[in-house]
Request: fold
Amino acid sequence: MAMILSADAKMVRETAHDFFREKSPILALRKLRDSADPDGFSRALWREMAELGWSGFLVPEDHGGSGFGHVGLGQVMEAAGRTLAATPLLGTALIGAVAIDRGGSEAQKAAHFPGLVGGETIFALALEEGAHHAPYRIATTAKKSGGGWVLDGAKQFVLDGHVADTLIVVARTSGGPRERSGITLFLVPGNAPGVSRRRSIMVDSRNAARITLAGVAVDGEAVLGPVDGGADLLDGILDCARAGLAAEMLGSSAEAFERTVQYLKDRKQFGVPIGSFQALKHRAAQMYCEVEATRSAVTAALDALDSGANDASLLASLAKAKANATARLTGDEGIQMHGGIGMTDEHEIGFFLKRARVAEATFGDAAFHRDRYAAVSGY
Reply:
């Protein structure tokens, strides 16, 4: 297991950090929020990211990407997390690319990869149907109709769902609403007849949507992966998404920690920096240790996904569980140590707490992944 970045990965890391600091600071997120931007992200910025090749890191070279891998994309995700950049990285460059690469036919790859790599096509995974992450709790149905299918149901918390050109819809083609078997994935145009999308803005000012499918007809070529056997494909997609999101959360946690330490050095009480107080030193030391432990877990998960290791699923859940706990800790402590000013919208530290809460619930909270870790381990 490689725990040290390659020279190429280090170069991507440095480039990404400079890019997001200069072109997408937290001020950019404020502008998107305060202007009620209809997209919720900058399309111009996304095109620049595509030009840098980031949208194609998980797309094979023979389909126009670089095949650079999860470790490489993880460096971009971490850098984006530091400035809380609102981008389609997770839904498109990661989830969309993995879904098409692992489950797509050659025709589907030829049809979808060029737009994805070029930053022209936005993807969204339409999975959740309840308040909590439950990947097999699927009541949305897909019924055979001639040579195609008809989809009916509703999805919640669909990231970038209101602007997605292509929806990856998880539907049930057989079995009961909580069974792992009988799940099938479909590629559905976002503007298909019968698809209605209602945007909802989360507490972290990010995009999400509620999507209703009412008699949505698709042809047989819309099926992604095997009919009734889509759970294995979905598991792989989610493992990649969890590790990638954990990388983003690592970036946010590291930034929140560093900002808090700087405040401890700058803020004075009784004539001395408050960072000289022993109790605050202990709390800062704990934050540092948790951030570095999370870095190790995230790096291990990303490397396992690239190498196809047997324990990739285990490590993905470990990384997400650890990132959840660390993001909550650094967000909470950042607010606490900044005192009253940390509670104001004018100060940026509160943005990290809000992002931590939403990211924690996305693709499974800490309790979900502790349970999954135990189950995968045979307990």
Summary: The first helix runs from residue 7 to 23. The chain has a mean pLDDT of 96.
